[in-house]
Amino acid sequence: MTDCIFCKIVDQEIPSYKVYEDDQVYAFLDITQVTKGHTLLIPKKHVTDIFDYEPELAGEIFARVPKIARALEQAFPEMQGLNIINNNKELAYQSVFHSHIHLIPRYGKSDDFSIHFGNNQEAYSPVEMQEIAEKIMKQVK
Ligand code: AMP
Ligand code: ZN
């Protein structure tokens, strides 16, 4: 795609700090380095977001996640955990519309990453939970 910053990175039209590359994927340091080693894994093919993947390409990209995760673990033995994040659409914090997976090494509770998981368990009865599950299940194709 001509006006996509990540396509330009894949095509070496703009520079990046490359971590890994093969025929399907490219991995490079996120410029913001939320934590040391913060890496983005992207398909070389332009895919806008998770809703845009063919199953084969999804398999190719997700198959590379453990490879990069293990490389980070080996590179930074002080790493204590790893958050893997994939934002989809603006509301969900996607700011570059070429799909990418963030790998964010964690070094301690006071490193510069945080995430909030609310707990709304009390808002749903077992019947409502079942209805929600069935509503989704009917759409899985
Ligand atoms: P998201 O907000 O999930 O769409 O993530 C996009 C990420 O791309 C952000 O974390 C940015 O810091 C990162 N980013 C944007 N431009 C570049 C670039 N030229 N090189 C490396 N990372 C970039
Ligand atoms: Zn692109």
TrEMBL record:
Q: Name one GO biological process term.
A: nucleotide metabolic process
InterPro entries for the chain:
HINT, Histidine_triad_CS, Histidine_triad_HIT, HIT-like, HIT-like_sf
Residue numbers of motif Histidine triad motif?
98-102
What Pfam family does this protein match (any one)? Answer: HIT
Report the active site residues.
H100 (tele-amp-histidine intermediate)
Q: Where are the transmembrane segments?
A: none
Domain of life assignment: Bacteria
- Cross-referenced PROSITE patterns: HIT_1 (PS00892), HIT_2 (PS51084)
Residues in domain HIT? Answer: 5-115
Provide a Gene Ontology MF annotation, just one: catalytic activity
Q: What is this protein called?
A: HIT family protein
The species is Enterococcus silesiacus
